[in-house]
Specification:
It is a single chain. By secondary structure, the chain is of the alpha+beta class. Helices cover about 35% and strands about 20% of the residues. The C terminus is likely disordered.
């Protein structure tokens, strides 16, 4: 069964039109690498203030650890390509804010996805395997 990761993207001083443009660019990049990605409308909490929708929002279906690894790679590449870009990812019962597209950031994000039910361990890793022990800083 697939887990869905919700991704909101932004840059400093992003208006709704720019947010949509950023989401379209990320969607195209992820789609070119084989991920199922859709635009979504995120409503504000019922008792809280907020916009009727969050522009720049995507839903990504993650069927396995391999698709989670593709998402981590693509999202970190996208973050690194633009100064000040950020992404908030919600999956399972958690959320994480990403602002760096580094290799360490990619590994940490992939570990976070896997810990939140987004697939099993990928079949092939591009580096030493982590044992998932308490040594990982968070």
């Amino acid at each position: 069964m697939a887990q869905v990761a919700l991704i909101e993207v932004s840059e400093p001083d992003t208006d709704p039109f720019r947010g949509d443009e950023l989401a379209r660019r990320l969607r195209r990049e992820l789609w070119e690498h084989g991920l199922a990605v859709d635009f979504v409308t995120l409503l504000p909490p019922p008792d809280g203030p907020g916009k009727a929708m969050a522009s720049g929002a995507l839903a990504v279906s993650l069927f396995s650890g391999s698709t989670a690894a593709v998402l981590a790679e693509g999202l970190c590449r996208w973050l690194a390509a633009g100064e000040g870009r950020t992404a908030r990812v919600r999956a399972g019962t958690g959320s994480v804010e990403l602002a760096e597209g580094t290799a360490e950031g990619r590994r940490s994000f992939l570990a976070w996805l896997l810990a939140h039910g987004c697939g099993a361990e990928p079949e092939e890793a591009d580096g030493p395997e982590e044992d998932g022990g308490p040594e990982r800083a968070g």
